[in-house]
Amino acid sequence: MSGLLGLFRKKKEPSAGGKKSSPSSDNKPPKPQGGKKNTNAPKSKSKKPNNSQSTARRNHPRSSHRTPHKKPEPSWDISQFQVEPEEGKTRFHDFELPDQLMRAIQEQGFKYCTPIQAEVLGSTIAGRDAIGKAQTGTGKTAAFLLSTIKQLIDIPPPDQRYLGEPRAVIIAPTRELALQIGQDAEALTKYLPLNVLTVVGGMDYEKQRSRMSSGFIDILVATPGRLLDYCERKDLHLDLAETLVIDEADRMLDMGFIPQVRRIIRMTPRPGDRQTLLFSATFTDEVLRLGEQWTWKPVKVEIEPESVATETVDQKVFIVTNEQKVPLLINLINQNNLERVIVFTNRRDETRRLTEKLQKKGLKADQISGEVPQKKRLKTLDNFKNGRLTVLVATDVAGRGIHIDGISHVINYNLPEDPEDYVHRIGRTGRAGASGTSISFACEEDSFLIPDLEEMLGAKLNLEYPPEELLK
């Protein structure tokens, strides 16, 4: 072990290889100089519904499918939401948002905008396209939801509406993230006559499909694969989408979803006839090229944090052997009486085996990974949120999709192979100004990744050997 610490600083040779070339533009016709199309004008339908779809495509009056519990309640007014102006801060009061939306904002505990919200909302509320860069946990979701909701309230829906035709479409790369966005959208539209529908893979197909015929869809949140399934079966039609949001564009690229996203975008109105908002944690050349293809004269916002990793997280790296990881993890949890911990691994099989070992030692632990059915994953997350679980063992499928308050520790059982994933992992703690702790285990199998992490962070990591009492 004595010579191991010095070896961890040795940097691996960069791998050769160029960037993947971006596909050509989607061959959209040139954009007119006008703004959004008149959504009040009835649109002729060339598509002929099949028998199973006839009900979903039958025209209904707009008032026939409204959710009663979302009607605004007169007992609240803006005077009950007082936020004093502060120099250098932007309030949500500084934007002309409906009172019903402001009430929901107050219930979410929001007072001042985050930097990405303050920078982008002025333009997107006015209807401009936007390309935004900001780290996870910086308020990107609220930024695009607030402007989308404002647009849907300000612009009346078409006089002739059909079921299965969402007015706003939000695409997210993972099920967890899509479900989280859907929950946030439900919370923000609580007092507004807007209906939110979330469709993701891994969940009951027919149950999600039946919800499409229960009322008009104002905001649709979806993962690319499941959205395409419904579109190809003519359950959903995107030809009247007024707003398109593409979240975590860099993750879409990493997961190979861009061809699916391209197909989805071709089903929507062309840029300029829809508002397009694209958000990404990083701006690679390919992400920027896609943004240029899919938007029309966008405002570009980049929020660069003072440090790549959140300053509210205390980071340390323990130098261990592979055999020492399990006892170290168990002792860290038990001796520090940790109550809400996420442990990240790199592979599904590691997640499963580690969870079993922790359960055998009496810890309240469970796992989420790509091999766990979606229904089980949702139940596990709910148990973790409600305190019925102490330890959540996860792969990076959860790295950008878990937004749970009160996570005190994030433990990297394996160092992530992609340095960007390190930032997303530790961002699960230290949220909303609270403090958190990140502990990473570096062993002989992954120590070579440390130099890349340090280069991305712009600082040396705190490397140390764990105390002997934690290894027993």
Quick overview of this protein structure:
The model is unreliable at 1-5 and 7-69 (pLDDT under 50). It contains 15 helices and 16 strands.
Defining traits:
472 residues, Rossmann fold, 2 domains, seven-stranded parallel β-sheet, 15 helices, 31% helix, globular
How does the major sheet shape up?
Answer: 7 strands, parallel
The CATH topology assignment of the largest domain is Rossmann fold
Task: Tell me, briefly, the overall form.
Answer: globular
The low-pLDDT segments are 1-5, 7-69
Strand content: 5-15%
Q: Reading side by side through the largest sheet, how are the strands ordered?
A: 5-6-4-7-8-2-9
By CATH, the superfamily of the largest domain comes out as: P-loop containing nucleotide triphosphate hydrolases
How many helical stretches?
15
The count of DSSP E runs of length 2 or more, i.e. the number of strands, is 16
CATH class of the largest domain: Alpha Beta
Please state the structural category. alpha/beta
Oligomeric description of these chains = single chain
When the domains are counted, the total is 2
Distance between the termini: 17 Å
The helix content is: 25-40%
Radius of gyration: 24 Å
- Mean pLDDT, as a whole number? 83
Question: Mind telling me which CATH architecture of the largest domain this is?
Answer: 3-Layer(aba) Sandwich
